[in-house]
């Protein structure tokens, strides 16, 4: 794969960022990492990165140099705001989510509004890239986990370690495909200068399909604890969450309980064929959570 003149990672300190950095270092790319709070990321000895402190809300007069590859790990809404500064890029690889399919019918109005905004941003990114003859690729992973920093698997693990039990909405039969952040990073790097990956989007699921209940049991196993799972109707759980939000002034959505019984499964055959995407299963021995 020919190396581009330069790669810019926007949102380099995000969950997936360190894995992208590591893989690009192994490939010998020259990379500039943009982050509001730069930090050292340990990669291989081939590391040829430059760090730039970059405040997205105040980007100054910065514009992407001609011929650069942009890897955006930013929320789509933020990337959308930066589009006028990316006119000279050769390629934009943007991170989205399969939630644009699964949450569009959410019972939570705020969630629906957010997803509609993300869908609009995807369309605008495609329109912008097409107008300026920039190759674009959109990655949509499912339930991303890794390094104990995600709000999915790691959040469940944290709750289990702290309280020793977990609550699910009976029967918690919705199917899930947890995907490791490093597998998403592999797909992103594989899309660079890949003509077959240009001007298309990919759904990225994990290497194993589990019911929500079995996923929780697998996380219990990873903590070395015997599964203690409390089964409650989703309606009762929603009321309890409503009370919790009032007391602690939090904003958790009751829709998360209803989703425990919804299937979120996606075909990633195109990613396997074009990007050689072969994701790992959720390892109950050492799931990196």
Question: Mind sketching the topology for me?
Answer:
Layout: E1 7-10, H1 17-27, E2 31-35, E3 49-53, E4 69-72, H2 76-82, E5 91-95, H3 99-102, H4 109-131, E6 135-141, E7 143-145, H5 153-163, E8 166-169, E9 175-176, E10 178-180, H6 181-190, E11 200-204, E12 210-211, H7 212-223, E13 229-232, H8 234-248, H9 255-258, H10 269-275
Parallel strand pairs: 1-2, 1-4, 2-3, 4-5, 5-6, 6-11, 7-10, 8-13
Antiparallel strand pairs: 9-12
Order of helices and strands: EHEEEHEHHEEHEEEHEEHEHHH
Computed structural class: alpha/beta
Share of residues in helices: 25-40%
In order across it, which strands form the biggest sheet?
3-2-1-4-5-6-11
What is the count of DSSP helices, taking H or I runs of 4+ residues?
10
C-alpha end-to-end distance? 32 Å
CATH architecture call of the largest domain: 3-Layer(aba) Sandwich
The gist of it:
The chain has 289 residues and is α/β, with parallel strands linked by helices. 36% of the residues lie in helices and 18% in strands.
Characterise this structure.
The chain has 289 residues and is of the alpha/beta class. It has ten helices and 13 strands. The chain has helices spanning 17-27, 76-82, 99-102, 109-131, 153-163, 181-190, 212-223, 234-248, 255-258, 269-275, and strands at residues 7-10, 31-35, 49-53, 69-72, 91-95, 135-141, 143-145, 166-169, 175-176, 178-180, 200-204, 210-211, 229-232. The longest helix is centred in the middle third of the chain and has 23 residues, at 109-131.
């Amino acid at each position: 794969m020919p190396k581009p003149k330069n790669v810019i990672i926007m949102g380099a300190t995000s969950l997936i960022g360190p894995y992208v950095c590591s893989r690009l270092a192994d490939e010998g790319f020259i990379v500039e990492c943009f982050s509001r709070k730069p930090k050292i990321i340990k990669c291989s000895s081939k590391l040829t990165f430059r760090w730039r402190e970059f405040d997205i809300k105040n980007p100054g007069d910065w514009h992407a140099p001609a011929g650069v590859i942009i890897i955006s790990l930013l929320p789509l809404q933020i990337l959308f705001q930066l589009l006028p500064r990316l006119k000279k890029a050769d390629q934009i690889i943007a991170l989205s989510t399969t939630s644009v399919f699964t949450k569009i019918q959410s019972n939570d109005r705020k969630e629906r509004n957010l997803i509609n905004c993300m869908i609009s941003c995807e369309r605008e990114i495609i329109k912008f890239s097409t107008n300026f003859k920039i190759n674009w690729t959109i990655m949509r992973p499912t339930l991303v986990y890794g390094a104990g920093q995600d709000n999915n698997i790691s959040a469940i693990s944290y709750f289990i370690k702290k309280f020793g039990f977990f609550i699910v909405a009976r029967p918690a039969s919705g199917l899930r495909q947890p995907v490791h952040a490093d597998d998403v990073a592999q797909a992103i790097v594989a899309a660079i200068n890949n003509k077959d990956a240009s001007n298309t989007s990919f759904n990225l699921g994990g290497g194993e399909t589990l019911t929500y209940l079995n996923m929780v049991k697998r996380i219990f196993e990873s903590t070395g604890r015997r599964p203690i799972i409390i089964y409650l109707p989703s309606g009762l759980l929603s009321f309890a969450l409503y009370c919790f939000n009032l007391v602690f002034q939090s904003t958790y959505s009751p829709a998360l309980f209803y989703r425990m019984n919804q299937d979120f499964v996606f075909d990633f055959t195109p990613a396997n064929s074009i990007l050689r995407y072969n994701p790992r299963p959720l390892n109950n021995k050492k799931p990196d959570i």
